[in-house]
Specification:
single chain; 192 residues; mainly alpha; 2 domains; globular
Length: 192
């Protein structure tokens, strides 16, 4: 399913320190929710070229289907792909160790100061910026599948299910996942 980037050097360049520092940087640059996906993609696909764009889209699709935060799953999958189980630990440790400490400290301070108008405005602005980053990354991920009409069709169905019908994500996944697996199996059988 997942391959090393086309130049074949991904595994050689991915030291444990690079995985730890890379996902630490992703965590420190992230703005919450899916914002880390933007920076993770930039790190593993564009900067370090540990995996290619299509592989990243596949990993992200898998992580979105699994329980837990998507970005932690991405750290596990990418770390595991380029360095095995110890790489998965390095990626997760980098993503969680220092940012968790910072997040608890800032969160405690915000809870004590919820009445500050400046804080409320700042959080609203960050929310808008994060939304833009998520939309931009979604479009980039979709571009990796532009030559796969069935993938684009399911992306469109998922989008419509979430936006227009306002169905919960779990309901959309439970409806589309078995259907997409079945159709993929049919196409794979025909291709042989």
């Amino acid at each position: 399913m997942v391959r090393i980037a086309q130049d074949g050097l991904g595994a050689e360049r991915a030291s444990l320190r690079a995985l730890f520092n890379g996902f630490l940087k992703v965590a420190l640059c992230s703005v919450g929710g899916s914002g880390g996906i933007v920076f993770a993609r930039g790190l593993v696909v564009e900067q370090r070229r540990w995996i290619d764009d299509r592989d990243f889209a596949d990993i992200l699709s898998f992580c979105q289907f699994m329980p837990g935060p998507n970005i932690v799953g991405v750290a596990v999958c990418v770390g595991s792909r380029v360095r095995g189980p110890i790489g998965a630990l390095a990626g997760v440790a980098g993503f969680t160790l220092i940012p968790l400490t910072i997040s608890f400290s800032v969160g405690a301070w915000c809870l004590r100061n919820t009445d500050l108008g400046m804080l409320q405005g700042l959080l609203s602005s960050i929310s808008a910026a994060a939304s833009g980053l998520v939309i931009g990354t979604g479009l980039r991920l979709l571009a990796a599948h532009r030559d796969r009409p069935m993938s684009l069709s399911f992306a469109g169905l998922a989008f419509c299910g979430l936006v227009f019908t306002k169905l919960p994500l779990l309901a959309v996944l439970l409806a589309l996942a078995p259907l997409s697996f079945s159709i993929a199996a049919i196409f794979n059988r025909r291709a042989r």
